[in-house]
Fold this protein.
Amino acid sequence: MVNTMKNSPKQKIEKFSFYTSLLLVTLLATYNFSNYIYLYLNIDNLNADSLKSCSFMMFTPNLISNIANYEISSILKDIYVIPEFQNIRCLGKISNITYTDSSTITGYIFTNSKFINLLLTLYNFGLIFLHYFKDFLSTKKFLIVIVQFNVVIFISYFNSFNISSFNLLIMTFVIIYLFKYEN
């Protein structure tokens, strides 16, 4: 039998959504990782503007870490992102960097657990709903998109995670497992 769904509008929307999601999450990961690499390579000669703005990503669960012979002591600082949406770009980044001595740097890592939990909830459960109830995306594409998104969010915004965030991640994969083996 010939597949009549090959060029249907639904197939086009699925394909567009899949590749757009992959591209956006990959761009986010690349942007965050390049910020971290820039900090690592240029930590000796940062300009005054970049020291005060949230320009550099920190991928560490430790509040004390070492980068290029500097010990970085980080302080977590919760910032509001609703209604101040411009603060979204500061999540997970280090700012207000000060050199306390020749080998020690202190700075604030901006976090917001509520926003990360909202993002995880809307994306994960929205995609689960679309996949299982509206037959959107094949299982392979669905798993690729959901795993990629959750891994990038987990690595990029680890300091914003709380117990609810971990529960949302675990619950997402438990729901996927239960839907697969429901009969």
About this structure: The mean pLDDT is 83. The helical segments are 9-41, 48-52, 113-133, 139-156, 163-180. The radius of gyration is 20 Å. The chain is about 50% helix and 15% strand.
